């Protein structure tokens, strides 16, 4: 494991995730400022996931062709450049387009960085390395959200400047350290059983990403907190993953536990929590914290299977793109479904039940196909 690469990739993912939730955590303000309804606001969240989702597989192909290091640097630079649009163009249409293109750039950053992290690690420690790397998501989605909302208390401009400085620092680190070319395995064909891994990722993305993206809006619109104090709580769903993201990878790598099992069980538990969240509002923040814990356990083993099914390191970015594509399809669809169902029922009861049940139904397919074993090819 190359510490400089893992560390830089971690910082990259932190900022990538911070940008991912920049609009969602500011959504109540954006809805009010642009004079739009919740449904149109949810489309802004979906816009990011449209770009992010549909760029997953192309990102993997491009990264494998031009080199994962070059792909990581160029895509991060593009993401930083696109972020400046939030400062210069302030209309609904502009925000929508910026979200789409930032999502596309973010996809290439993620796929390239994931490929580098796995390629730079020993075969049997790749799930562990991915687990450490995935911690960046939870830091960005928790601490990043907190910083965005906290600095937003001063002004939108101040929040923008603060995040931009952090992005520039991360970009410099990318330029200096994201350079790796020593592939450990010869190229082969991607295993078709990767489709079952993709279904696991879809289920988790459909329930958790949708829930996390809409969480700030949920606690504000249900009267749990007012928007002025939302920053105190917005980070909670992601914070649990700070603890468990490395743990999931370590367990599957060092104890030889089947990665598919260690990916599926936490998602089922997470689905049940989200399903009953509306009925247990007294424990809303504790339960939300546990969704992050479950997602953290799932993250490392599920993404680590990209290496197991890639057929060789020359395809590792493509394999990562395929797996994460499914996760983001779920994350793209669920926020808009939540927003649509909320506009009909004026409650989050039905939306949360729907996304949880759908996730569990999809999981029955990989559960029946538990022949997806941990393999080091």
UniProtKB/TrEMBL annotation:
Q: Do the record's keywords include Oxidoreductase? A: no
Q: Report the SUPFAM superfamilies cross-referenced here.
A: MFS general substrate transporter (SSF103473)
- Alphabetized UniProt keyword annotations: Membrane, Transmembrane, Transmembrane helix
Q: Listed GO molecular functions? A: transmembrane transporter activity
Xref: Pfam families: MFS_1
UniProt-listed Gene3D superfamilies:
MFS general substrate transporter like domains
The record's PROSITE patterns line, in alphabetical order, gives:
MFS
Q: Which domain of life is it from?
A: Archaea
Location of the Major facilitator superfamily (MFS) profile domain: 1-376
Q: Which residues cross the membrane?
A: 36-54, 66-89, 95-120, 132-152, 158-177, 198-224, 230-251, 260-277, 283-301, 322-342, 348-368
Q: Which PANTHER family match?
A: PTHR23537, SUGAR TRANSPORTER (PTHR23537:SF1)
Official protein name in the record = Predicted arabinose efflux permease, MFS family
The organism encoding this protein is Picrophilus torridus (strain ATCC 700027 / DSM 9790 / JCM 10055 / NBRC 100828 / KAW 2/3)
């Amino acid at each position: 494991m190359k510490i400089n690469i893992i560390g830089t990739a971690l910082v990259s993912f932190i900022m990538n995730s911070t940008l991912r939730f920049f609009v969602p955590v500011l959504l109540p303000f954006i809805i009010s400022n642009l004079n739009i309804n919740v449904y149109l606001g949810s489309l802004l969240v979906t816009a990011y996931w449209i770009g992010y989702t549909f760029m997953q597989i192309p990102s993997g192909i491009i990264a494998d062709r031009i080199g994962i290091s070059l792909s990581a640097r160029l895509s991060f630079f593009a993401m930083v450049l696109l972020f400046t649009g939030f400062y210069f163009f302030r209309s609904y249409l502009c925000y929508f387009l910026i979200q789409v293109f930032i999502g596309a750039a973010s996809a290439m950053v993620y796929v390239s960085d994931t490929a580098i992290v796995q390629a730079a690690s020993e075969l049997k420690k790749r799930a562990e390395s991915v687990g450490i790397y995935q911690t960046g998501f939870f830091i960005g989605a928790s601490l990043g959200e907190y910083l965005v909302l906290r600095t937003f208390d001063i002004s939108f401009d101040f929040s923008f400047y603060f995040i931009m400085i952090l992005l520039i620092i991360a970009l410099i680190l990318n330029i200096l350290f994201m350079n790796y070319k020593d592939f450990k395995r010869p190229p082969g064909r991607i295993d078709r059983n990767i489709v079952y891994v993709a279904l696991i990722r879809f289920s988790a993305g459909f329930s958790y990403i949708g829930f996390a993206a809409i969480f700030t809006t949920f606690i504000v619109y249900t009267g749990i907190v007012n928007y002025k104090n939302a920053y105190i709580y917005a980070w909670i769903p992601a914070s649990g993953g700070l603890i468990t993201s490395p743990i999931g990878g370590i367990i599957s790598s060092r104890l030889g536990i089947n990665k598919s099992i260690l990916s599926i069980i936490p998602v089922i538990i997470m689905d049940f929590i989200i399903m009953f969240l509306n009925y247990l509002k007294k424990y809303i923040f504790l339960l939300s914290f546990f969704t992050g814990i479950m997602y953290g356990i799932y993250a490392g083993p599920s993404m680590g299977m990209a290496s197991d099914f890639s057929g060789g390191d020359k395809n590792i970015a493509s394999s990562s793109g395929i797996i994460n594509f499914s996760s983001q399809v779920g994350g793209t669809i669920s926020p808009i479904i939540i927003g649509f169902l909320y506009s009909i029922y004026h409650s989050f009861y039905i939306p949360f039940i729907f996304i949880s049940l759908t996730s569990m139904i999809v999981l029955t397919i990989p559960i029946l196909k538990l022949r997806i074993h941990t393999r080091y090819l």
